[in-house]
Structure formats: structure tokens, C-alpha cells
Design goal:
Layout (H helix, E strand, L loop, with lengths): L13 E4 L5 H11 L3 E6 L13 E2 L2 E2 H6 L3 E5 L5 H12 L3 E4 L5 H4 L4 H4 L7 E6 L14 H7 L2 H4 L14 H28 L7 E5 H6 L5 H8 L16 E5 L5 E5 L3 H10 L3 H4 L7 H6 L1 H12 L4 H10 L4 E3 L3 H6 L1 H5 L3 E6 L2 E6 L23 H8 L4 H9 L4
Parallel strand pairs: 1-2, 1-6, 2-5, 6-7, 7-8
Antiparallel strand pairs: 3-4, 9-10, 10-11, 12-13
Length: 407
């Protein structure tokens, strides 16, 4: 049973989120969900561009309500000297800084890690960029679309002979956010362990995340297969190279199912339930090596079988035979699925008096789980509480910053 009312793993950790769009902000979302006190800095008036991306309601992106959950949103002009001085004050109160500007930008503003560690040597300084902070490409802009291609992922994603396919998601940004969050947690753990072991004041470090490297990290055996066997992994459509059978099959009701029958014993059960006992007992197909050689024959047989049944009939037979299989869901299917609901993958937040469903953030922890406390707020919602309550600015100083456009 999950207790969602108590403490969370990152309670007491203060995070300053600079930058915009997706990779850096998603990192802040992950940390904030599990208890970190996240202050998000946005440009005055315009805010983070994602506020206006994709589907809008009441002039604000619905995506924003999820991505900016649990964050204290403040505005600050980082291009002004006064704005940068205020950022330094916020940094000095923080455990973690997240920035995803082009390399060199923070140094140009006098906010690079060498400068910051003079006053806060314990800071975990997290940098997210397209190509990393070093190397000949470090200066290049790197959106997810470009870095997904550069990482090698796009090359293997698609059908042979066709243009590489992009998933309709910004995978590079989200994967970079996941890697950044992991890097931050590792650095925080090391900082605590160093303090525990030595009794001395712990030190911070720089976490350097590149979008293309976050995707490269998922490329499985592509590198050793090329070096050891001079094999370049090619796109394979709906199949998975070297693992058979695992494919997508069309059913009588024009829906698709995915079948993963690549285990030796699973393959036997699959072919028997599909009515191909001869293939189930064929010694040529008893192992994956043999099944790869006969991939077209196996896939043709399974495609013929599924074409005679509805998708639900296929799935029912697969479940009875203990063969992994499943439907291809869109978001409406997710909403209507009892397992999604039972696992708590949807959360409801209040947006100006109306409920909005947003996704829960994973992983699940049973004793100290994360939770959503509020939806992504309006621009500058926390200006007063952060600048007056946390930085102790007077009302006169606060009003002066507003008049001069600093906040």
C-alpha cells in the first residue's frame, strides 16, 4: 500500500531551474514530484515558451499544467545585471541548479560553475545541452529532433528503404531530463556520503548532460556489434533485428496487436495456439538463432492467423497460452483501461476551479512516494513569496523591480 501523505525522498532539497522548453524543466518536474523545493525562473512577460505550445485552454498550454506542477514560478530578466545578481542570491540558497542554455551562455552572464562555486561550493550544477559542454560540436544548437538523428537512434527507427521515422514525441529532451535527474541524485548521494565519511563539509560537482548522449545510452548492442562483427544495425520496420518472433500483426477488425513470442518455450506455446503444431515442434526453430533464419515464414504464419480473428480474440488466446501480447493503445484507450487506473497513473489537479487529469510521475515508492501538489501555475505566481519571503526584499525593493521590468 502506498502512503501519499507523508514525507518524500527529496524534502528539504532546494532546486533552482533556469532555462526553458523541455529537457531542463522535465528534470525539475521529476525532482519536484519527489519533494524538492523547485523555483523556476522565467523571462518576464513571455515566460517559458511551452506555456503556449500545442493545445491551449484559457490561453495556457495544457501540457504546461503537467510539466510545471509543484514549481514556484517566478519571473526574472537574466539579461540584466540586476537580474543576474538576484539569481546569485537564489543560487546561494540552493542545493541544485539546472540550466539548459547553449554552452557558454551562463559564463557570459557571470553565472558559470567556476564563478558560482566561490559562494556555494556545495552546489550540484546541472547543465543540459544538445552536445555537451566540451567537444567540437558543443557550441551547436541541439534540439531533440537533431540530436535524435545524431545519436544513431533515427537511423534504426523506420522501415528499410524509407526515410527514418520520428516518434511524435520529443524523446531526446525527455531522456535527457531522466539522465539529468539521475545525475543529480548520484551527485547528492556522493555529497552526503563524503560528508559522512570524512566529517568535512561536502562539495558539489557539475553534471554534464547531452541530449544525443542520453539517447546514445539506449543503443543496446549497436556499438559492440559494429566493432566486433562490422555489422551496422539497420531499420527493421515493426520487427526487432535478431529476435524472432516479435512483431505487429493486423487482425480481422483492422486493429493491430503486438506479439512477443521470442522465448524458446513461449514460441512453442504461441505456434500451438495459432494452430501451427508442426512449426512449434520444428527443430530448426527451436532456438532464436534458427527462428531468425526463418523469420519470414514465422511472421507470415502468424499474420495469417491473426487476420482470421478480432484483436480481442487474439489477445484472449495469447493470454490463455501465457504468451506476451497486447493492443496498441492511444490515449483514449489508456483512460479507459482499468489497469492504468489501478496503478494510479492518472492524477487530477485543479486549474482555475476545473479538474484536469495529468500523468503521475514514476517510479513508484511505497513508503515515500511522490505526489502532485498543484498544477503548473500562472506566470510570476510566486514572485512575491520568493522575493519577499525567501530573499527578504522589502516591499519598496520588490515594487521597484517590477517597475524596472527586472521581474
Amino acid at each position: 500500500m502506498i502512503d501519499d501523505s507523508g514525507s518524500r525522498p527529496l524534502d528539504g532539497i532546494k532546486v533552482l531551474e533556469l532555462g526553458q522548453l523541455l529537457a531542463g524543466p522535465f528534470t525539475g518536474t521529476l525532482l519536484g514530484y519527489f519533494g524538492a523545493d523547485v523555483i523556476k525562473v522565467e523571462p518576464p512577460k513571455t515566460g517559458d515558451p511551452i506555456r503556449q505550445w500545442r493545445i491551449l485552454k484559457d490561453d495556457t498550454s495544457l501540457w504546461w499544467r503537467s510539466l510545471a506542477r509543484n514549481k514556484k514560478c517566478v519571473t526574472l530578466d537574466l539579461k540584466s545585471q540586476e537580474g543576474r545578481e538576484i539569481v546569485k542570491q537564489l543560487v546561494d540558497q540552493s542545493d541544485v541548479l539546472i540550466e539548459n542554455f547553449r554552452p557558454g551562455t551562463m559564463e557570459k552572464w557571470g553565472l558559470g560553475p567556476d564563478e558560482i562555486k566561490k559562494t556555494n561550493p556545495n552546489l550540484i550544477y546541472t547543465r543540459i545541452s544538445g552536445y555537451g559542454q566540451t567537444g567540437p560540436n558543443s557550441h551547436k544548437p541541439g534540439y531533440a529532433s537533431v540530436t535524435e538523428a545524431y545519436s544513431g537512434f533515427r537511423y534504426v527507427n523506420g522501415f528499410p528503404g524509407d526515410a527514418p521515422v520520428r516518434p511524435n514525441l520529443s524523446m531526446g529532451d525527455s531522456l535527457a531530463g531522466l539522465h539529468a535527474a539521475m545525475g543529480i541524485l548520484l551527485a547528492l548521494l556522493e555529497r552526503q556520503k563524503s560528508k559522512y565519511k570524512s566529517g568535512e563539509k561536502p562539495g558539489g560537482q557539475v553534471v554534464d548532460i547531452a541530449l544525443y548522449e542520453s539517447i546514445f545510452n539506449l543503443m543496446e548492442g549497436v556499438v559492440p556489434e559494429y566493432d566486433g562483427a562490422q555489422v551496422i544495425r539497420e531499420p527493421s520496420g515493426t520487427t526487432l533485428t535478431g529476435i524472432v518472433p516479435t512483431n505487429t500483426y493486423s487482425c480481422k477488425d483492422k486493429k493491430f496487436v503486438v506479439i512477443g513470442g521470442n522465448g524458446d518455450s513461449i514460441f512453442k506455446r504461441l505456434m500451438k495456439v495459432a494452430g501451427y503444431t508442426d512449426m512449434a515442434n520444428d527443430t530448426r526453430m527451436a532456438t532464436n538463432v534458427g527462428r531468425v533464419e526463418h523469420e519470414q515464414e514465422i511472421d507470415a504464419a502468424l499474420a495469417q492467423w491473426t487476420s482470421t480473428l478480432t484483436s480481442q480474440e487474439v489477445l484472449d488466446k495469447l493470454e490463455e497460452a501465457k504468451v506476451p501480447g497486447g493492443p496498441i493503445y492511444n490515449v483514449a484507450d489508456m483512460f479507459n483501461d482499468p489497469h492504468y487506473k489501478a496503478r494510479g497513473l492518472f492524477e487530477s489537479v485543479d486549474v482555475e476551479g476545473e479538474p484536469l487529469t495529468i500523468p503521475a510521475i514514476l517510479p513508484k515508492l511505497n513508503r515515500t512516494p511522490g505526489r502532485t501538489e498543484w498544477a503548473g501555475p500562472a506566470i510570476g505566481s510566486h514572485n512575491k513569496s520568493v522575493y519577499m519571503d525567501e530573499l527578504r526584499l522589502s516591499e519598496e525593493e520588490y515594487n521597484s523591480l517590477i517597475k524596472r521590468g527586472v521581474i
